[in-house]
Specification:
Largest sheet: 7 strands, mixed
Order of helices and strands: HEEEEEEEEEEEEE
Strand content: 35-45%
Number of helices: 1
Radius of gyration: 17 Å
Helix content: under 10%
Length: 197
């Protein structure tokens, strides 16, 4: 258990970067039809220290109607000694818009075209804010004919409250073999819509 906690702490420290939507996207975040596609990196195998590549955070624009800060990458791990339970640090989406509340949806979650790993397991996205704790969204395998709603109304930014922050983590279970180390990669597409007053 100590090794598992050390890996989670290492992931949390290494993943402290974030990216603000509508700025110039870092190399590993792609914009497709106005939607941000965030890479989600996995590790399956024996206990070891996992550190992601460094990421640059771009300058933040100031005159936009939807102003949202999202993680530049998301990581999870399924460790053999933990019985294949999928764990991750907590990640945060922040609505920094002063004018609009926003709706947050998952538009798509799919294995990256360059990821040649057979995924034998289930991934979920779990909101960890007390107000949203019961929200669990199945990511993989999953059907995305329609978007999956995470939050209907993420409040606009105010200095008095952190209600504009949405925290989540990746969970699930790896049911495949641990005979070799695997590094599956997924692309998660989020969609943000301004909520009219």
């Amino acid at each position: 258990m100590k090794k598992l906690m050390a890996i989670l702490v290492a992931l949390s420290v290494a993943l402290s970067g974030s990216y603000t939507v509508l700025a110039s996207a870092p190399e590993n975040v792609t914009t497709v039809n106005g939607r941000e596609v965030i890479p989600v990196y996995g590790y399956v195998g024996s206990d070891k220290h996992v550190i992601p590549p460094d990421v640059d955070v771009p300058e933040i624009p100031s005159d936009v109607e939807i102003y949202v800060e999202i993680p530049v990458q998301i990581m999870f791990a399924a460790i053999e000694s933990a019985g294949g339970v999928v764990v991750s640090p907590v990640f945060t989406i922040r609505n920094l818009s002063e004018k609009n509340d926003v709706k947050v949806e998952i538009e798509n979650f799919e294995q990256n075209a360059n990821s040649a790993v057979d995924v034998d397991g289930k991934l979920t996205l779990m909101l960890t804010n007390p107000a949203y704790e019961s929200v669990v969204s199945e990511l993989f395998p999953g059907e995305y004919q329609t978007k999956k709603l995470l939050v209907e109304n993420l409040p606009r930014y105010t200095e008095e409250s952190n209600a504009h922050e949405l925290e989540f983590r990746i969970g699930g279970h790896w049911s495949g073999s641990f005979a070799e180390e695997l590094q599956p990669v997924f692309d998660m597409t989020l969609m943000f819509s301004a909520i009219a007053d």
